[in-house]
Design goal:
- By secondary structure, the chain is an alpha/beta fold.
- It folds into two domains: about 5-140 and about 295-380, FAD/NAD(P)-binding domain (3-Layer(bba) Sandwich); about 150-205 and about 245-290, 3-Layer(bba) Sandwich (FAD/NAD(P)-binding domain), CATH 3.50.50.60.
- The chain contains seven helices and 20 strands.
- Strands 1, 2, 4, 5, 6 and 19 form a six-stranded mixed sheet that branches. The chain has a five-stranded parallel sheet with strand order 7-16-8-9-12, covered by helices on one side. It has a three-stranded antiparallel sheet with strand order 13-14-15, with no helix packed on it.
- β13 (about 265-270) and β14 (about 270-275) form a beta hairpin.
- α1 (about 20-30) packs across α7 (about 335-355).
- The longest helix has 19 residues, at about 335-355.
- The protein starts with 6 loop residues before the first strand and ends with a strand.
- The structure holds flavin-adenine dinucleotide.
- Flavin-adenine dinucleotide (FAD) binds near residues 20 and 140.
- InterPro entries: Auxin_biosynth/cation_transpt (IPR050982), FAD/NAD-bd_sf (IPR036188).
- It holds the Pfam family Pyr_redox_3.
- Keywords: Oxidoreductase.
- This is Oxidoreductase.
């Protein structure tokens, strides 16, 4: 700590979801010590990243595929248990096994230029001065609500996927779901079992994809998002470019008319939504399944955004400031992408730390050289 009470470190990781934990694991592997050379900060109350907040009916069996964190598999998880519980317990065990010492709940409010080429990370537990920042803040904290005329006049209930409580609360109600992504279709299929009536509104015609999700398809989707980020455009979600998987449940819902889609309405009325051609739908609830945006407001003082609205990155490294690495952002916003990005970011950070100035004394002797990390073998979730 220096005299002004600012703690000096080599690396600050913001966010302890899949991306942040992967980065922390790799920082340990290259010999940096948690709480000494690096620190991981997260404002959520518990381990689990955004998964801890996902609705109880999103069971582990319903997620599209959760890639294990590096160095510790997850086995024997009951597909009927909420993914929030399963992944929360898995991440907690992971942090513990690798001694990652996540600081929580700690809010990172801003990152700005400091002295001597360091970044100042202002947090609810004080200020850190760091040589590199790995930003792993995901998107959950920034739900995207589009604005439509008349929205404030609606007398029913409006909510977003981020506050979705599960389907039972909508028993006997008319529910309109907005959004053509995976969350929207999942909400509809669940709610239709309880609601009096459901409606689905999407901006463009949804694309359903036959056949299994192949690696090749995944790669092509990631490449499309990567291209946007390279060009400084706001990233799209990977799902938005892969289309919706046509599994048995989706097929059934389509046959039952649950996924009959209406085009986007023109305005919201006190009792529903309306189109300029005279059509109206009366509804009790509007559920906005309209996605999320990267939670990067705390980086605003660094002025990383391009005129296109996105942060341009080469790999994980922000083009406008090579000290900042973005993981779980754009093309790496999936559990597998987050894992890879964590590793890539650490490689890049280590190159940076070896530049003049070197790794400060807090790093273990020989930092930058792979060291064994404790533990091996899978994590088996204890029975509920
Ligand atoms: C409903 C839903 C289902 C999904 N299903 C899948 C799936 O099946 N498979 C898949 O691969 N991907 C899925 N995804 C994408 C998924 O979110 C990512 O794959 C991955 O889990 C994101 O990890 P992350 O570490 O980037 O972000 P997160 O898990 O969101 O972690 C970010 C962390 O940063 C913290 N944070 C944010 N801002 C701050 C701040 N200012 N200060 C301090 N801490 C902060 C948060 O508390 C959080 O813990 C899904 C996404 C959604 C929304």
């Amino acid at each position: 700590m220096n005299i002004s009470g600012v703690r000096e470190l080599d690396v600050v990781v913001v966010g302890a979801g899949q991306a942040g934990l992967s980065a922390a694991y790799h920082l340990r592997r290259v010999g940096l010590k948690p709480d000494d050379a690096f620190v991981v900060l997260d404002h959520a109350p518990r381990p689990g990243g955004a998964w801890q907040f996902r609705w109880p009916s999103l069971t582990y069996g319903k997620v599209h595929g959760m890639h294990a964190l590096p160095g510790m598999e997850l086995t024997g998880a009951d597909p009927d248990r909420p993914s929030s519980e399963v992944i929360g317990a898995y991440f907690a065990a992971y942090e513990d096994r690798f001694g990652l010492r996540v600081h929580r709940p700690v809010e990172v409010s801003s990152v700005r230029e400091g002295n001597g080429g360091r970044l100042l990370v202002e947090t609810s537990e004080g200020t850190y001065a760091t040589r590199a920042l790995i930003n792993a803040t995901g998107t959950w904290d920034r739900p995207f609500w589009p604005r439509y005329p008349g929205q404030e006049t609606f007398r029913g209930r409006q909510l977003h996927t981020a506050n979705y409580p599960g389907p039972e609360e909508f028993t006997g109600q008319r529910v309109l779901v907005v959004g053509g992504g995976a969350s929207g279709t999942q909400h509809l299929m669940e709610i239709a079992e309880f609601a009096a009536e459901t409606f689905w509104v999407t901006r463009s015609e949804p694309v359903f994809r036959e056949g299994p999700f192949t690696e090749e398809w995944g790669r092509a989707a990631v490449a499309m998002v990567e291209e946007r980020v390279r060009n400084g455009l706001p990233p799209k979600s990977v799902v938005s470019v892969t289309g919706l998987p046509l599994n048995d449940a989706v097929r059934r819902a389509r046959e039952q008319g649950v996924l009959d889609r209406l085009p986007m309405f023109d305005r919201i009325t006190p009792t529903g939504v309306a189109w300029d051609d005279g059509r109206v739908v009366e509804t009790d609830v509007i559920l906005w399944a309209t996605g999320f945006r990267p939670a990067v407001d705390h980086l605003a003082p660094l002025k990383l955004r391009e005129p296109g609205g996105g942060i341009r990155a080469e790999g994980t490294r922000a083009v406008r400031d090579g000290r900042v690495h973005l993981v779980g952002y754009g093309p790496s916003a999936s559990t597998i992408g987050a894992n890879r990005a964590g590793r890539a970011a650490v490689r890049s950070v280590m190159r940076l730390l070896k530049e003049p100035g070197g790794v400060r004394a807090g790093g273990e002797a020989g930092a930058g050289v792979a060291v064994p990390v404790p533990g091996a073998g899978p994590f088996r979730l204890p029975a509920a």
